[in-house]
């Protein structure tokens, strides 16, 4: 019996059970607590956790007739559940808890503890079950959210240490204090005047006085950029400046065309005027962004009649031509207005590619004319009894199909608006259509379409865009727990579908007047076992001599897709796997760069350099082999990774812990050099690099650029998005734009470390005292992460420091939470007892509390 069939049969059995009368229990009175009991349980890679259900009402919770659903990123082990109930997986990360024979219910005022064992381990609250909801058997279509739910914090080593060799405990204020001691605040006169760091600059002693009366004079090639600048200055000045032809000696802003490389520019600010020169509109645009970062941050808080801009001369050009940010809107959705705001942020820091991940297992987010099921079914999530009206809940999205995070998509009009907005900001938007794996939203939607058309007697049309072989008995389980999420690449209808979607995407870009050079066709995480028992595959093998095994289907598929893309003027782009070939080494599976595709101009995102997994050099091997590589390394550039090991610090951590310093100290051409910790956060054993392939000079020519990424499994809403990407994105912007720093190429380790410490101090000062205060107001303000203060007891007093200078530190000594009215920390605190400290930004928003006890 296949896993897919088993999951479906379990659901049918639940729905077919005898209907019970309404239980008369109000779910609001069911209090649920979840806790991690012990990691490394019984000395294995597993953990013990527990639900505690408390009936706070006056009516008994019933013995039967109910099912509790929840999403969980871990896999409970069968037969380990206590309390008279059982935990069962349905599909993906959706589980259900059901009563067993003899379950006694929960009397009013009583509690029930349910323990179970699951694979792997947990550290922070985002590991916990999420999106809990109850379904009564007499109303199977209605999911009722559990609103009284709490995840209890882990406080003991057995709860937060993953295994015996886990060398780091939870990050404490004392640990942060020691870490923060490495940096110092750099005086203003030693800071680069614009951000990211330009190639060269010179500061003067005067200022230019900007008022609404200062006109903008632009050469003909830069009229669009002049209009953009006028709009930005209107925000600052409360009035849009005039766009004027050549004038006399009056102060003005000049946008001037001059022979220079495409993205290069010069910026000159003098008391008599501002001149930005470039050879292209892109260069002028980046000069405008530098001018904006030269403006004092406080000027963005409210319209000003006068803005004083310091005298500066800048010569600048980017290090990499490809400076990308990836956002996944499938696992959880982000509305159009947040995408537009993200584009403003990217533009300010000169990032020029938005990698837009709009399709995946958990959502199809782009309207495609002629295939309404993709968004009507694949663009919505909620409780379902059939799986055909919409997708099931994932990542805590809950039972409501109108939920803000699980459901949503961009209409053609929305997407065209996004494209126009991006194009105005010289940002290329690359859509990603996940194939052949990570495709469940599309697979399910096209199944529903086929079923409808078959019922209408339209058999040929029903099969036209079908993505799975109805007779395929293959068994597989994806990394995310799906049993039915892969397109069957032996079916001609898969290519008909991809061509249809590709053509509609091309039409969108044409209508928007936006450039489209490529579509990203995915390619990652196709699970073992797929296609093994498919009649369609067997038929293809009989007809196609190049396909002898299911491994060969990979090359067959991407050969056809790349040919289709090339025929439409697009180059092939995907995840690293599309450039790999499976072979044998000493009788064991072994992957090498695929020689068949290297001459076809493939570009690949390489994410897997997880330190300690064995593929640390994969990006360099592919670049050395001739593939165009975008460094998308999980070790430094996955912004969804948690900042550090702490219960209340959100995010995954399977590939690394990633704070703002990780993208900053990333060395694109030699990230082995200063790698400091493994994927678990432990001090790095550098022997893992022995025998690894380093980047050749030829390979360097194939490093296209770098990309920061945010996967949204743990991100619900714009506030959490901004918390996760900022200030990390500023480290990405610096490394993508600025020249190779001296510390990255210095061969003497001690000298390199000293140079790095100075560079970090300068960077942290600039972002803490200038860029984050600017982002308090820019584009409406961003909810960036405010680092928790470091604190320790030294010589009987509490001393406090911070990772990024510029925040106001406030404290209390009476056990209450610090507020904007609490005392400001200016000197060591002599008070005894519990001291609480918070960092506040310019808008009075605070980060999390650091607590230290002074005995």
From TrEMBL:
One of the protein's GO biological processes: glycosaminoglycan metabolic process
Matches recorded under InterPro entries: Beta_hexosaminidase_sua/sub (IPR025705), CBM2/CBM3_carb-bd_dom_sf (IPR008965), CBM2_carb-bd_dom_sf (IPR012291), CHB/HEX_N_dom (IPR004866), CHB_C_dom (IPR004867), GH (IPR017853), Glyco_hydro_20_cat (IPR015883), Hex-like_dom2 (IPR029018)
PANTHER family: BETA-HEXOSAMINIDASE, BETA-N-ACETYLHEXOSAMINIDASE
Class of enzymatic activity (EC top level): hydrolase
Positions annotated as active site in the UniProt record: 525
Phylogenetic placement of the source organism: Bacteria, Pseudomonadati, Bacteroidota, Cytophagia, Cytophagales
Family stated for the protein in its record: Belongs to the glycosyl hydrolase 20 family.
Keywords assigned by UniProt, alphabetized: Glycosidase, Hydrolase, Signal
Signal peptide start-end: 1-21
Identification of the protein by name: beta-N-acetylhexosaminidase
């Amino acid at each position: 019996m296949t896993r897919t069939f088993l999951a479906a049969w379990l659901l049918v059995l639940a729905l077919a059970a005898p209907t019970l009368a309404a239980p008369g229990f109000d779910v609001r009175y069911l209090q649920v607590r979840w806790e991690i009991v012990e990691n490394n349980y019984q000395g294995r890679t597993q953990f013990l956790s527990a639900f505690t259900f408390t009936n706070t009402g006056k009516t008994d919770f019933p013995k039967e007739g109910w099912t509790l659903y929840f999403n969980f990123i871990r896999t409970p082990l069968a037969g380990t559940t206590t309390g008279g109930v059982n935990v069962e997986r349905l599909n993906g990360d959706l589980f259900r808890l059901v009563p067993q024979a003899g379950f006694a219910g929960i009397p009013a005022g009583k509690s029930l503890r349910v323990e179970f064992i699951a694979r792997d381990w947990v550290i922070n609250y985002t590991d916990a079950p999420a999106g809990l909801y109850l379904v009564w058997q007499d109303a199977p279509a209605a999911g009722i959210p559990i609103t009284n739910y709490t995840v209890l914090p882990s406080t003991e080593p057995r709860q937060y240490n993953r295994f015996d060799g886990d060398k780091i405990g939870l990050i404490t204020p004392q640990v942060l204090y020691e870490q923060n001691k490495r940096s110092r605040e750099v005086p203003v006169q030693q800071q680069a005047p614009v951000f990211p760091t330009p190639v060269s600059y010179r500061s003067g002693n005067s200022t230019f006085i900007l008022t609404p009366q200062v006109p903008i004079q632009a050469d003909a090639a830069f009229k669009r950029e002049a209009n953009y600048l006028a709009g930005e200055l209107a925000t600052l000045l409360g009035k849009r400046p005039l766009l004027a032809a050549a004038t006399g000696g009056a102060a003005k802003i000049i946008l001037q065309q001059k022979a220079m490389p495409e993205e290069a520019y010069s910026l000159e600010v003098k008391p008599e005027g501002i001149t930005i020169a470039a050879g292209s509109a892109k260069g002028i645009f980046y000069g405008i962004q530098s001018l904006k970062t030269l403006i004092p941050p406080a000027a963005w808080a409210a319209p000003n009649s006068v803005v004083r801009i310091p005298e500066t001369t800048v010569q600048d050009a980017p290090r990499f031509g490809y400076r990308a940010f990836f956002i996944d809107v499938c696992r959880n959705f982000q509305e159009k207005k947040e995408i537009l705001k993200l584009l403003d942020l990217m533009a300010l820091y000169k990032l020029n590619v938005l990698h837009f991940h709009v399709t995946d297992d958990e959502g199809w987010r782009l309207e495609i004319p002629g295939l309404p099921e993709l968004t009507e079914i694949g663009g919505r999530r909620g409780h379902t009894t059939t799986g055909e009206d919409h997708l099931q809940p994932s990542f805590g999205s809950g039972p409501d199909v109108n939920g803000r995070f699980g459901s949503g998509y961009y209409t053609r009009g929305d997407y065209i608006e996004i494209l126009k907005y991006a194009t105005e900001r010289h940002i290329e938007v690359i859509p990603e259509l996940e194939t052949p794996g990570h495709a469940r939203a599309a697979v399910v939607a096209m199944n529903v379409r086929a079923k409808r058309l078959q019922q209408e007697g339209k058999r040929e049309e029903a099969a036209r865009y079908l993505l799975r072989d109805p007779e395929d008995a293959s068994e597989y389980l994806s990394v995310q727990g799906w049993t039915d999420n892969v397109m069957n690449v032996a079916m001609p209808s898969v290519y008909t579908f991809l061509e249809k979607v590709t053509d509609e995407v091309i039409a969108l870009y044409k209508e928007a007047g936006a450039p489209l050079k490529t579509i990203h066709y995915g390619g990652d995480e196709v699970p073992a076992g797929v296609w093994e028992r498919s009649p369609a595959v067997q038929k293809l093998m009989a007809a196609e001599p190049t396909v002898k095994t299911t491994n060969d289907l990979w090359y067959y598929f991407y050969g056809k897709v790349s040919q289709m893309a090339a025929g439409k003027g697009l180059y092939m782009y995907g995840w690293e796997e599309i450039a790999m070939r499976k072979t044998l080494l000493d009788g064991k599976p072994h992957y090498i760069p695929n020689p068949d595709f290297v001459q076809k101009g493939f570009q690949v995102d390489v994410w897997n350099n997880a330190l300690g997994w064995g593929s640390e050099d994969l990006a360099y091997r592919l670049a050395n082999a001739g593939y165009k590589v975008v460094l998308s390394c999980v070790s430094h550039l996955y912004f969804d990774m948690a900042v550090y090991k702490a219960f209340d610090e959100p995010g995954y951590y399977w590939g690394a812990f990633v704070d703002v310093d990780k993208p900053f100290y990333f060395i694109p051409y030699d990230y082995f050099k200063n790698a400091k910790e493994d994927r678990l956060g432990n001090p790095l054993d550098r022997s893992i690099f022995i025998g690894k392939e380093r980047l050749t000079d030829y390979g360097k020519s194939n490093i296209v650029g770098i990309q920061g990424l945010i996967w949204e499994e743990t991100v619900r809403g714009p506030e959490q998005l901004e918390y996760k990407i900022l200030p990390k994105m500023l480290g990405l912007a610096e490394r993508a734009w600025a020249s190779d720093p001296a510390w990255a190429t210095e061969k003497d380790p001690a000298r390199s470390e000293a140079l790095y410490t100075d560079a970090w101090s300068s960077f942290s000062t600039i972002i803490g005292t200038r860029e984050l205060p600017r982002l308090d107001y820019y584009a409406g303000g961003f909810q960036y992460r405010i680092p928790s203060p470091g604190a320790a007891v030294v010589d009987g007093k509490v001393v406090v420091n911070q990772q990024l200078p510029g925040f106001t530190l406030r404290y209390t000594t009476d056990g209450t939470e610090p507020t904007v009215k609490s005392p400001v920390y200016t000197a060591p605190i002599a008070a005894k007892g519990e001291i609480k400290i918070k960092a506040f930004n310019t808008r009075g928003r605070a980060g999390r509390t650091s607590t230290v006890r002074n005995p």
